[in-house]
Amino acid sequence: MDDKLIANKILKGDATAFKELVDSYQVKVVNTCYGFLHNYEDAQDLAQEVFIEIHRSIKKFRNESKLSTWIYRISVNKSLNFIRDNKKRKWFQSLDILFDSDFRTNNQNVDYKSPQKILESNEKSEIINKAINSLPEKQKTAFVLHRFEDLSYKEISEVMKTSLSSVESILFRAKKNLQKKLVNIYKKK
Amino acid sequence: MDCKITEKKILFYINNELSDVDMAVIKKHINECKNCSSLAKSFKESFSTITENKITEKDPYFYSRLTARMEQEKKWNWKIFFKAKPILHLATYILLGFFAIIGGHLITHDIEDEITNSYELTDEELFASMNYLSLNSDDIYVVDVNEFEE
Questions:
Q1: pTM of the model
Q2: Mean pLDDT for chain B?
Q3: Which residues from chain B sit within 8 angstroms of residue A26, using beta carbons?
Q4: Which residues of A73-105 are buried (b: 16+ CB within 10 A; e: fewer)?
């Protein structure tokens, strides 16, 4: 179905059109969120927020870009905001732990991983995920869209609202940075 | 070709993003060097996890969960405050604190004004307090408050 037609139908409150859109983009949105968050539950939860945002602001979609580009942009922004908020939340939590003696005594082993969890965690994906997380936002966005969503450089440039040459340069730097970080990690082992 | 040059191109090598010449040279070095061979293997394994971790199938309950959440959010709009960004929480607390200070200041000033300006003892009250304190009329001094203020 035509992008503008779907958008108009959703705007008029057509639940079937919205369901169609969710079905078509569910996997793409969840994968994009997962590329940033590396946690399935968080990615699923955030994907729902993405679709709620799409439903809420569908009137803002003016067919200037493809619907898919617009949806990817919302997914990227939501993911980056989630990471930023999570950093703040962790900072506030660390303050709570510092001042709350009950919390200190009851939750001393809050970060302790059970042996089963250690077994479950995939060491290799943890290494690459940590390396991706440490990239600057633009590099991370371009890399996730490229590797997790297989978007072309042109599509990435549309999502990121930047030029094709800029995406090439951002991705080159992202790969160089990842390579440096991974070589350091693997050489220490 | 040494290990340092291989390390600088290893990611591009495993992704086949080098020229044919570079690909051949690095491949030759990796075949001869145990460390670089191990490094290339680790890189390949790490990057393959990205593909392995990708979701390929739709969650059949995703849409029903989504609509349930949308319905709930419509009903409980006030809950949005608690989900709001920490900066909004901080702004709200600052505003509440500000109003508490202003309110407290106004209330205490009203009480002080009542005590200092509005209250005058009637004769009955004066004699009653004299009786209570067992004072004579000689013990009472009339004080003009304005004298002190001047």
A1: 0.69
A2: 81
A3: 58-59, 62-63
A4: bbbbebbeebeeeeeeeeeeeeeeeeeeeeeee
